[in-house]
């Protein structure tokens, strides 16, 4: 019974760790999208000024 409980706790800890890693990756990707959109907007503005 104790071994089964220990395995279940380990599985839950691993699942939580994986979820946190995935959330971190998603947050980083969202930040990169925001950065790229800002840069694109700036570059489009620079292009419009040259016309």
General description of the model:
With 51 residues, the protein is an all-alpha fold. The chain has a domain at 25-51. The protein has one helix and no strands. The radius of gyration is 22 Å and the shape is rod-shaped. It starts with a helix and ends with a helix.
SSE blueprint:
Blueprint: H1 2-50
What is shown here, in short?
The chain is an all-alpha fold and 51 residues long. The protein has one helix spanning 2-50.
Mean pLDDT: 95
Name the helicity range: over 70%
What is the ordering of alpha helices and beta strands?
Answer: H
- Number of DSSP helical runs: 1
Strand segment tally: 0
Content of β-strand: under 5%
Termini gap: 75 Å
Q: How would a textbook summarize the main sheet?
A: none
Overall radius of gyration: 22 Å
Q: Assign the structural class, choosing from mainly alpha, mainly beta, alpha/beta, alpha+beta, or little secondary structure.
A: mainly alpha
Features:
51 residues; mainly alpha; 1 helix; 0% strand; rod-shaped
